[in-house]
Amino acid sequence: MKKVVNNQEVISTPRQDARHHWHDAVPDDRLAHLIREATRLLVRSLQARLQAHNVSFGHWAFLRILWEQDGLSQRQLSEAAGVMEPTTHAALHAMEQRGYVERRRQAGDLRNQHVFLTASGRRLKRLLVPLAIEVNEVAVQALPREDLTTTRRVLRAIIGNLAAETLPVTRKRAVGSSASKIKR
After folding, report:
1. In a domain, 157, yes or no
2. Strand (E) positions, the chain?
3. Tens-digit pLDDT profile for residues 23-77
4. What is the full DSSP assignment across 120-157?
């Protein structure tokens, strides 16, 4: 679809038009929606760059943690990444296949497997971190420094507020599970 923006004719897709219309229709949208949309676009942008180097976005999170703390147990890595252990196990298996990490048991701790970067996994840092920096630079281009400082301060406060909130733990029971069946 052709349209004029800032006295220039541009071609846009129906998806872009719908998204632009959505932003116009809901100018005071909730922060959660705006943060989600920004996150979605940041992830998409980084994912495309990582894909060019045969690294999945899921592996990126684990690599970042291991670049800072090599040798964590699988459980520690799961906690640091904020994902369930089966997710970590599957990702680590794939990362081992690609030669990025190796899992091994340490003397004195034969129960836990610890995860270590290989030389190949360590080399990825020099290649991939600049891609993440580039995505951030694209995202904030032309924004005043004061706005970025305020945004960081506000987001940190939101994160702190939500992290401090204590919620009751609720567990949904699977339909059909013995725990969910009514005893008669």
Report:
1. no
2. 2-5, 8-11, 101-106, 109-117
3. 666 667 788 999 999 999 999 999 999 999 999 999 999 999 999 999 999 999 9
4. HHHHHHHHHHHHHHHHHHHHHTT--HHHHHHHHHHHHH
The angle that helices 85-97 and 74-81 make with each other, rounded to 10 degrees, is 110
Q: Which class for 1: exposed (0-12), middle (13-18), buried (19 or more C-beta within 10 A)?
A: exposed
Give 69-127 pLDDT, tens digit per residue.
Answer: 999 999 999 999 999 999 999 999 999 999 999 999 887 777 788 999 999 999 999 99
Q: Show the domain range for 132.
A: 31-140
Amino acid residing at 41: L
**Under 8 Å between Cβ of 109 and 41:** no
Task: Give pTM, 2 decimals.
Answer: 0.71
In the DSSP assignment, the letter for residue 176 is: T
- Structural domain contains residue 6: no
**Number of domains forming the structure of the chain:** 1
Residue 177: inside a domain: no
Whichever domain contains 104, its CATH number is: 1.10.10.10
- The answer to the question of residue 173 being in a domain is no
